Amino acid sequence: MTRGTDPPSETRAGRVLRENSLSLAFGVLFLAVLAGQAFVGAAQRDADQVAAGLEPLGVAGYVTSSVFWVDVTENWQSEFLQFLLFIGLTVWFVQRGSPESKKVGEAGRETDEQQLVGSHARLDSPAWARAGGWRLRVYSHSLTLVMGAIFLGSWLAQSAAGVVAYNEEQLRDRHDPVTWTAYLGLPDFWDRTLQNWQSELLAVLCMVVFAIYLRERGSPESKPVGTPHEATAVEG
Fold first, then answer.
1. 3 — phi, psi (to 5°)?
2. What does the domain layout of the chain look like in residue ranges?
3. Most exposed residue of 26, 107, 120, 174, measured as fewest CB within 10 angstroms of its CB?
């Protein structure tokens, strides 16, 4: 069998699974953990409901409640903020020795020739990379635009679910509910938000710095094991 070719007996489904195994693995893990969060969260919520003399919600009631979705969306928005900042900041900032950084002295948008756009595009380049005008400008920033849109949408969803959950607690304690705009200025909202932001930024910082000195053989997120610490923009 020639190296790099498909096995003769491999089916189309098998090839699709092999070629998309990373995204499929993360997709399955995501759904499994989300389901776990739903069942565990429902159990905890029902225990709190019973202790307060209220009817339990059950799993179905819990996953359609504002309590569940404020917890989910507050994590989603922080994750997409992490990647949005990482994508944007690595254009202009570098870290000597990190595989997560461009080489020192190469910060910036790079030339059309380096980016393979416009007249420098190849035959197999995406159509919008070969185009000019607004299509090229949009496609040149499409990853940031999509990540930013998902972050903003998740942030708005968190605030909407959060104000409903907060007002449920307010009414339960016989306090007046608040409006959405008022909730945005409350410590409850920003405590949920900032505790997630700081953890995500710390994780990125650790990845950038640890990858200078530490290795994981075979991972594209790591430099080759024998690569010098000061080597930058080198992946395994």
1. -60, 135
2. 9-64, 69-236
3. 174
